[in-house]
Design brief:
heterotrimer; A alpha/beta; B mainly alpha; C alpha/beta; A: 4-stranded parallel beta sheet; 8 strands; globular; C: alpha/beta; 4-stranded parallel beta sheet; 12% strand
Chain lengths: 545, 70, 396
């Protein structure tokens, strides 16, 4: 038997070890990369963040969220029957059964290295996202008639394309009206949580004859339908053209594979032109008439106003957060939590759980500002992330902060929906709703007009950023169509920009290790900097979630 | 007697709490999911019988959308 | 068959965008207005004192400069147009009437707008029109309004073009003359043994889109007369007849390639094809000329971007109906690499057209200029053989 090696103990600085145990290691000494089991992304053990933060993570994040997941299933699912439906759905649909069980690892990846208020506020954002997911998952399964769901609930449920804003159902919510964005849960969030599943859907649609070059996000969406993995939970569908040509293509698949009444609510392309708003407004009104015809519900103006006012409150709080992010060092939300939370609630629409989370985050943020807490003390560069992000590596911002001190302050998708919708008159409200739709995700500043894509410069200034993480979605025709102009502008403006190639949900095209390598190369060769945590430079997470 | 029950309950709770902490700290939940649950579920879904998409009808309609009341 | 009298002349006109007749049109003092998409009504760019040119980039096989600006992962057509612009090949256009009807051509046109001096022409301007995705009354109103603001008002304001109803009527008249002649030429393809090849027709159709109409109409009419007496070969030089459907194709050599494999292309239901583009523009009672134009271009189009449930389904039947009308034995569905609309549409057509309408389909992906003809040739030859075999088995 090999004798234990006690020689290292001789060099042990007991005082330092005790301090590290109590407070956690300082940033430069953490060696977070050593915690991984090669390939898997699993941890040999989870990070020790000091007594206070480790116990916070264990009690208030890990235990709490596991518990709240069960609670959400019961509450949103409507009791034991909901639980049974949930289990049936888990067994029937790959996107649930193979994906969402790994949710706590999603927290882990995104919250690595976070401490104190930053850990807490970011985790609350994730709690909000998980709650919203469960609200929808139980919504899907309770209505799915193929697994014994309730046909009456289904009769008041509208399925929608990815970028139809959830507000379309606001006027009917008091009558049981329900909105199911058909790709958000079965596909979009899965990529963040566990990117293994989505590859099945991409492969399925390519096996069916689709070339490999259209937007992989749309490929995955189409694959869900081809694989018969969209539950039969809605009575009719509202689709849209946003954000790009491929989204139009997926509408044909949605129609064909589901064979339900489908209303197209396309949005205009030239959305800066005020003369187009009327057209959009009429299409939205027609969509409402369609919903009424299909579900038998009536349009309730007061209900619409109620939800829009609540949504405006969310947007106003978002602006407060931006103000703190832009002008102080006390913004307690990390890049990935900020980005995912913002796009999720803006697109899904107003619901009670968002307000609950906002209240908690407000409290933490106010404390940070009042006490002048430096929430990301190792920040070397303030980064703005632009264009569409890699879904399979949304946690890159956490890695980039831990490894290089790159602090992602804001990202493009978060800025898209910056609009308070007027409720003074029906006409004004409708026009603003039209505008909100026109600014759909990935549309306004990604595949929209050049002038909006180049809003990057003013936002860099507004958020006091000195560096750009330029997402390079290899299959986004809109963004690929302007790469040269960006290069020219970066040079002319003398801006440090790192191009981050990726393929939205498909990690096989550009692996995460490749993304890290590109950032590492830029930081060491162009910026001439040393990593804060060298163990994070290179590690193998090729088969991880 | 009551004291004993409370003591035992607290003891069990403490043990459970410590056990859960071990699960958390050593990422045992992740390992279980990665090595056991996910492969099992993947196998289940890979072998699930599915509708052949080629057989899904694509009927012509004569109104803007199916079942539109003109 | 004996050669068409003007074919070589027509072919020469397609060798460059700034061709002989375009130069003549400009020398005559006309404004030259560029466009790319069917949804920019060419008739409105043919108002008195103007002529339209649908942009092409013939022989552009390697768009290197454009690939810097638009990467190598966008549609070759859009990149080729930008390449030609960067080379100075579009300096002759006085304005670009743009549409955002597919992403990459939109980006190309945005480059024209954004990059100083890319079009070396002091008068040059780019103006965008929004085009709806549906064909309902709301869409027609919207489209009409857009055409008024972004085409008519723009041309009047910037160039003093007469955009009165009378002027539009005149332009409709000129366009209809061309439409009717080209359509009549195309109708010969419906015959059992057509006296015109798909390649020849493609050249004629393209010429009508890229030259001032008043300068080309006579030769088109002469060609129509010539075809009335043109005798097809007793033994046809093809084995099967096909309809070509799909995304952008302004390369007659692509059709020549198909025909060299034994498949006569008798119908062209693709972007830059004639089946929609060369229909007669009718003015319904009560409609003003601009409304008639808006209706015509919206309602005749079978573009894969239309989204109403009925339209998404119906356009498969339209292809099958055309195939029947033109006596096609099979259908070739093509999409340009990186064309997203047609990537999806082609996948669906490849399944639905044989299954529901009984037409064999050859589904291919191509480049704007097809240098990889060997691979395509093999595909077409195999398709021709399979359809021929099917015909033999059916005793046809």
């Amino acid at each position: 038997m090999k004798k234990p090696d006690f020689s290292k103990l001789k060099d042990l600085d007991v005082k330092k070890a005790a301090k590290d145990f109590v407070y956690g290691k300082p940033h430069g000494e953490r060696r977070l990369g050593d915690l991984y089991i090669p390939k898997t992304g699993l941890y040999k053990h989870r990070e020790w963040r000091g007594i206070k933060d480790t116990m916070y993570y264990f009690n208030n994040i890990w235990l709490y969220n596991y518990g709240m997941i069960v609670r959400d299933i019961m509450v949103y699912g409507g009791g034991p029957k909901g639980l049974i439906q949930f289990l049936k759905g888990t067994w029937r649909y790959r996107w649930m059964g193979q994906t969402y069980l790994t949710v706590m690892h999603w927290f882990d990846r995104c919250l690595e290295g976070m401490r104190g208020e930053t850990l807490a506020a970011s985790a609350w954002h994730f709690r909000g996202i998980v709650s919203a997911c469960l609200y929808q998952i139980t919504g899907w399964f309770n209505r799915d008639i193929t697994i014994g769901g309730d046909p009456e609930l289904r009769a008041k449920t509208i399925g929608t394309d990815e970028t139809v804003w959830g507000g379309v159902i606001y006027p009917y919510m008091d009558q049981g009206g329900y909105y199911l964005p058909t790709q958000m849960i079965p596909y979009f969030v899965t990529c963040h949580c566990n990117n293994h599943t989505v590859l099945n859907y991409i492969d399925a649609v390519q096996a069916y004859g689709l070339p490999g070059d259209p937007c992989p996000m749309c490929q995955a969406e189409a694959g869900l339908y081809i694989e018969d993995d969209i539950p039969d939970s809605y009575v009719a569908m509202v689709t849209t053209n946003e954000a790009c040509d491929s989204s139009v293509g997926t509408s044909v698949i949605q129609d064909w594979m589901m064979n339900k009444p489908l209303f197209a609510m396309p949005q205009v392309m030239q959305f800066d032109d005020d003369s187009v708003l009327e057209n959009c407004a009429k299409e939205i009104e027609m969509a409402w008439r369609f919903i009424e015809e299909q579900t038998g519900m009536e349009f309730h103006w007061d209900e619409l106003v109620k939800h829009i006012k609540l949504q405006n409150q969310q947007n106003q709080f978002e602006r407060e957060k931006w103000d703190v992010a832009a002008n102080t060092h006390s913004y307690p939300i990390n890049g990935v939590a900020q980005a995912l939370y913002r796009i999720f609630y803006s697109q899904y629409g107003e619901r009670p759980f968002w307000h609950e989370m906002d209240a908690k985050v407000r409290k933490i943020m106010e404390k940070c500002v009042n006490e002048d807490i430096n929430t990301f003390p190792m920040t070397r560069h303030r980064v703005i992330a632009w264009s569409c992000a890699p879904l399979y590596y949304s946690a890159w911002c956490t890695w980039a902060y831990n490894c290089w001190g790159l602090n992602t302050i804001i990202n493009m998708d978060s800025l898209m929906f910056d609009l308070d919708i007027r409720t003074d008159t029906y006409e004004n409200c409708l026009l603003d709703i039209a505008k909100y739709h026109e600014w759909a995700p990935m549309r306004r500043m990604a595949v929209g007009g050049l002038q909006h894509i180049f809003e990057l410069w003013e936002n860099m200034e507004k958020f006091n950023c000195d560096m750009v993480m330029m997402y390079d979605q290899l299959q986004c025709k809109g963004m690929q169509g302007v790469v040269g102009l960006f290069e020219d502008e970066f040079r002319a403006r003398n801006i440090h920009a790192i191009w981050m190639p990726h393929a939205l949900p498909d990690k096989r095209t550009v692996p995460r290790a490749e993304i890290r390598r590109i950032i590492n190369d830029y930081m060491s060769t162009v910026m001439g900097e040393e990593p804060l945590d060298p163990s994070l430079l290179d590690f193998d997470d090729s088969d991880s979630w | 007697m009551v004291k004993k029950i409370i003591k035992r309950t607290l003891g069990v709770a403490a043990l459970a709490y410590a056990g859960l902490f071990c699960v958390f700290y050593f990422d045992l939940d992740g390992k279980l999911l990665y090595y056991v649950v996910e492969p099992f579920m993947k196998n289940h879904f890979d072998n699930m019988e599915r509708r052949d998409p080629h057989t899904v009808p694509y009927e012509m309609i004569d109104t803007e959308y199916m079942g539109k009341k003109n | 068959m004996r050669d068409l009298k003007h074919l070589i002349y027509f072919e020469d006109l397609l060798q460059e965008a700034n061709n002989e007749l375009v130069r003549k049109g400009k020398e005559d003092g006309n404004l030259c207005l560029g466009y790319t998409c069917y949804f920019m009504p060419e008739v409105l760019l043919d108002l008195p004192g103007c002529f339209s040119v649908r942009l092409r980039a013939p022989k552009c096989t390697s768009p290197d400069m454009a690939s810097y600006y638009m990467s190598g992962r966008t549609c070759h057509y859009g990149r080729s147009l930008l390449e030609r612009a960067l080379e100075g090949g579009f300096n002759f256009i006085d304005a670009q009437l743009a549409t955002e009807t597919c992403t990459v051509t939109c980006r190309f046109q945005e480059h024209l707008d954004y990059m100083d001096g890319v079009i070396n022409n002091a008068t040059f301007k780019t103006e965008f029109t929004d085009v709806p995705f549906k064909k309902n009354a709301n869409s027609i109103d919207h489209y009409r309004k857009q055409l008024q603001i972004h085409v008519l008002d723009f041309l009047n304001r910037e160039f003093g073009v007469d955009t009165s109803d009378e002027a539009i009527l005149k332009a409709i008249e000129i366009n209809n003359e061309v439409n009717d002649v080209v359509r009549a030429i195309g109708d010969f393809r419906k015959l059992d043994n057509p006296p015109i090849t798909g390649y020849e027709f493609s050249v004629i159709n393209l010429v009508s889109m890229v030259c001032p109409k008043y300068l080309i109409i006579d030769k088109l009419k002469e060609t129509l007369e010539e075809l009335k007496t043109r005798e097809p070969d007793d033994k046809p030089g093809y084995k099967i007849k096909v309809l070509l459907a799909g995304s952008e194709n302004d390369d007659p050599d692509f059709i020549k390639l198909i025909e060299s494999c034994g498949a006569l292309v008798v119908a062209d239901r693709h972007c830059y094809g004639s089946l929609e583009a060369r229909q007669h523009i009718n003015i319904e009672e009560g409609d003003d000329p601009l409304t008639a134009v808006a209706k015509h271009y919206l309602l005749t189009s079978q573009c894969a971007r239309f989204m109403e449930q009925q339209e998404m389904r119906h356009r498969k039947k339209v292809i099958a109906d055309y195939a029947k009308e033109y006596q096609a034995d099979g259908i070739i569905v093509e999409s340009n690499k990186f064309c997203e609309y047609w990537s999806f549409e082609r996948m669906i057509d490849t399944i639905v057209l044989p299954r529901d309408f009984g037409y064999p389909v050859c589904s291919i992906e191509k480049e704007y200029i097809n240098t990889a003809s060997g691979q395509l040739r093999t595909r077409f030859q195999a398709f021709v053989e399979s359809v021929e075999l099917k015909k033999i088995q059916e005793g046809k």
